[in-house]
Amino acid sequence: MKIYQVDSFTKELFKGNPAAVAIVENELSTDLMQQIALEMNLSETAFITLHDNHCDLRWFTPASEVPLCGHATLASAFALWKKGYWDTSKVIEFRTLSGSLFTSLDENGMITMDFPSNPAKPNLGFDKAEMELVFGYPIKEVLDYPDELILIFEHEEAVLNANPNSEIIAAQAKSGVIVSARGEQSGYDFVSRYFAPNLGIKEDPVTGFMHTILTPYWASETGKTEFNAFQASARTGEMQTVLKGDRVLLKGHAIMVFETELSLPSK
């Protein structure tokens, strides 16, 4: 089976978020896909089944299947166009657990992904004291999204310097903890990070899905609908986001790292 490794939300090798992209020619069991994702040991491995007018797409972390992943969708689209599986002038429809997702490519290599908007709700009863001790900075607001906890900080310094204890983070939400703040010295509209030890990821380098939550939040806070966003992980990554009704457009670049053949176990 052909597998590609792609760095997403970057133009530079070894930046952004790496994802494995597997082209599925013969049906794989869920257990085998999970084993492959664990073997690849990246934050996400995407499995693509090609059809004439669409592609089926599933995503797995080393620990579990997930319903939505931005950087592995971007990596998947990039690999399909780069390696000639799909005409670069045609939109790719990915059919996923989160419904149909659409990706397009412009003449400058920018990939646009059309995702559902996922607004979070305020968590008015959350006791911020423990998390303020963990991060060492005051928290402006706490939000909830299914399986996620979102902490909005007063200043971007709190996000840039974050190094929380994974055991404490794991107890906060089923999936992970998102932290964000308005951009100040960074030159971006907002900055963010994502800690997800329960998904087998201490910190995800760049998270597309997270931006479908943060974009409507920052739109409500600023009155803007278009943003330059920065994810301040060690690898760093950047994207442009646009709130368009009940959809969020995520825009970014990608670069191929390597391609290989994976030997599958005989039946």
Low-pLDDT stretches: none
In CATH, the homologous superfamily of the largest domain goes by the name Diaminopimelate Epimerase, Chain A, domain 1
Helix content: 10-25%
CATH third-tier fold name of the largest domain: Diaminopimelate Epimerase, Chain A, domain 1
Structural class: alpha+beta
The major pleated sheet works out as:
18 strands, mixed
Order of helices and strands: EEHEEEHEEEEHEEHHEEEHEEEE
Radius of gyration: 18 Å
Number of strands: 18
Overview of the structural elements:
- The chain has 267 residues and is of the alpha+beta class.
- The chain has 2 domains: 2-116 and 251-261, Roll (Diaminopimelate Epimerase, Chain A, domain 1); 121-245, Diaminopimelate Epimerase, Chain A, domain 1 (Roll).
- Helices cover 21% and strands 40% of the residues.
- It has helices at residues 30-40, 70-82, 129-135, 156-160, 166-170, 208-222, and strands at 2-8, 17-23, 44-50, 55-60, 65-66, 92-96, 99-105, 111-116, 121-122, 139-145, 148-153, 176-182, 190-196, 201-204, 226-231, 237-244, 247-252, 254-261.
- The chain has an 18-stranded mixed β-sheet that branches.
- Strand 16 and strand 17 (247-252) form a beta hairpin.
- The protein is globular, with a radius of gyration of 18 Å.
- The model has no long low-confidence stretch (mean pLDDT 96).
